[in-house]
Every structure is written in C-alpha cells, then in structure tokens.
Amino acid sequence: MLNVVLIFVVGMLFLAGILALRPYANKTDKKKTVLNWFLYLVWFLITCIGLSFIVLNAQIGHVKATSTGIFLFFGLSIVIGIVLARLVGLIGLGKKQKSSNLTS
Length: 104
Fold this sequence. Notes:
mainly alpha; 4 helices; membrane; 104 residues; transmembrane; transmembrane helix; elongated; Reductive dehalogenase membrane anchor protein; 0% strand
C-alpha cells in the first residue's frame, strides 16, 4: 500500500514540476528549451532513483549504503536543480532583468 501512495505522490510532483517549469521555459530559443526539459527529466529521474535506493536499503538495514545513497543522489539532485534553476532564470538575474521579465 505504501508503494502505491509513493508512486502517486511522485507522479503528482512530476506533473507539478512540469506546470511550474512551463512558464519559465524559453520558447524562442529551441536549444535552451530542449536543454531545460532534458535537465528536468534527468533531475527527476536521479531524485526518484535515489529515493528508491535509499528506501530499499533502509528497509533491509544497510546503513552504509543508505548514507552513501543520501550523499550521492541528493548531492547530484541539488547540483542539477541549481543548474536548472540558473538556466531557467529563477536564480542569478539582476534587478533590472527581473523587473523587465515580469513586465513583459
């Protein structure tokens, strides 16, 4: 039963991510748009693989594998998430660029 709930929650988060990323995707530059969506899919897959790896190892009792998985997968997930946020334009914009993006 817990697996079904986790799959449902992950599906909801995936769709929420798509809806959140869609307004920020640059539609004029095709390469940047494809790169943004590719990074989103890679980020989501790494996060899901990491969560399943951590949950499975925690249930079995492999403490070292669980801690390694937390460090590896969540570290990669954070790095890819920051790169994606930078490419989309959520972080790193100056005040002038932000105000011009909001008005247009």
